[in-house]
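Regression test attached.
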Amino acid sequence: MELDTLKYIWKQATENPARQQSNEQILEILKKKSMRPVAKMKRNLLYELIFAVLLYAPLFAYYFFGFEGKLTEPAWLLIIILGIFLVYYYRKNKLLDSMLVADSQIKVQLEMQLLTLEKYLRFYLMARILIPVSTLFLGAVMYWKLPPPAKPNLFYLSPENPLWQVVLLWLGILGVLTVLVYFADRWYVHRVYGRHIRKLRQLIAEMNES
Amino acid sequence: MQSIVSQDEFVKLVYQHQSMLYKVCSLYCASAQDRQDLFQEIVIQLWKSYPKFRGESKFSTWLYRIALNTAISDLRKQKNQPTVPGSESFPEEIPEVQYYREKDEQIHQLYTAINHLTEVEKALVMLYLEDKTYHEMEEILGIHENNLRVKMNRIKEKIRKLTKEAAYGTGHA
């Protein structure tokens, strides 16, 4: 059957009055939340922000007011981390906003979506590297501020543990943590967004091929 | 948020163009529930983009862009959809196939064939069946006219083959 002869059939097939929605039903739809993946990502990001504030604020109070005021440094560090997180939130939110635009040409939209999503994920992976770094920094601050344990151990400077050994151990932990967090995040990103990215690439390639 | 006046205006416009929106939903979703979800999503996206519509392009062009963008780029309803035709069997159920089969076997063949096209090809076929010019298609899809003509020729051939297979039942597993 020729496609041109199908035009009439197409028009008949798609003019089904039973599907009509009333003005009221359309108005109802406008009150609903978008279920697009990007809209969901935006909502999740907001929950992430709320979670971060709820986690960091009590931790800040704990270090700032506890320990007879001897551990204010970790408290300020937590505030700095929270500040970085706010920048991270703002940047991610902006990237997601640009992905929500849907009135461009289809090809332009797909290319923009792929580019922004890749940028978004790179930014996510980079930002997550801060976790082991800040954890180690927090540990180092504690190390200098708190009195050493009664029984010497590998993490503390002592006649048995020279400086280079302690530093090497801390850096080793940082390295392992960083690598673990990085690969765990990469796996997570691949699992959640991998199929979507592959599909976007495939669609763009199909649109470009002649 | 937009004013009540623009909301009423918008609802009227969607009401007038809803058959076109349903066509997009029928092309990209297999089940009635998915079609309804996609319809809602398209309307929400249209409403969000409505303040930015300045009439630089035709309203229908703008509408097609948003509807197709939502259907194609979200990709969430396409996991169970058949992809490019080949050796795979024809789908057991296609959009409202029962209804159409009773009405006209040719409609069944048409939908069976379209269901075997890729997301991009579906968009192209739909615009073609809607009598859009190649220039309008370019405005909506962002693919150059010459490239569109080449693609359309390939799709026509594919549809011809698929409808033939559907007519003789050779596509069934």
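Expected vs. actual: identical. Chain B touches chain A through 65 residues (CB under 8 Å).
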